[in-house]
Amino acid sequence: MSGKEVGSGGFRKRKHDNFPHGQRREEKENVNPSSALMTSFKSFQLELDTRHDKYERLVKLSRDITIESKRTIFLLHRFTSAPNGEEIINESEVKLDAVRRKIKQVAQELIGEDMYQFHRAISPGLQEYVEAVSFQYFIKTRSLISVEEINKQLIFTAENREETTNMTSNSHDKQPHTWSLKVTPVDYLLGVADLTGELMRLCISSVGNGDIDTPFELSQFLRQIYDGFTFIGNTGPYEVSKKLYTLKQSLAKVENACYTLKVRGSEIPKHMLADVFSTKTEMIDQEEGLS
Fold this sequence. Notes:
The chain is mainly α. The protein has helices at residues 21-29, 36-76, 85-109, 119-141, 147-152, 161-170, 185-208, 213-232, 238-264, 270-290, and strands at residues 155-157, 178-180. Strands 1-2 form a two-stranded antiparallel ribbon. The chain starts with 20 loop residues before the first helix and ends with a helix.
């Protein structure tokens, strides 16, 4: 290595260091800001900044959807212990309507955009919404809501004149005054997988309230869901196969509760069954953690 290529500190000089600083400054000053190249780069910059701002707004909306959906789930867990379960259902419907209004804002943000470019920003909120809606639907009908029924609830129309005028003023084309957002099959499956954890908690709380029939219904229902997920196996998305272990864990806890009710139900007082189940659940968690 020649001495000309090595600087004072023993580091290799970069090629542009051979040019005087004044010459580089003159080259920057000679750049024409109105040239076609600079105009193109400015348009690219504006497009990227706009897309980034939209992405951040969608992340914030998704976070709000997640929080409100979790509050709805916490409310629905009071269904087994509330004296009037109909009031809990009506209150949860009000909360879900508020969540749908947030989803409507997401649909408005995605007008004219490819949803899959922003899917990572809104996916957590949609999964939590699917979990809340399916939990409410199960409590009311003892069945699983389909993705088509969920998407039917996510078709929105302009509620007032302001939304209509804003929509027509922001776009030159005549667009229908409706917005829609479709839950993808992957988000639906992940939301249903999270639902199994809430059903497991519902099983334990129902036993604590003296309801002996619900655990057996939940066990059969969870077994059907688990069988459906095993058909997907490793052929589906990575997130779905990852949720399969948690689903199997929830099913094992519910089946263990049913076993205890069937074999030792007459030996243990009803007010102590919930404590027995919680203790056994902790033992199962410890054994699976060691294995």
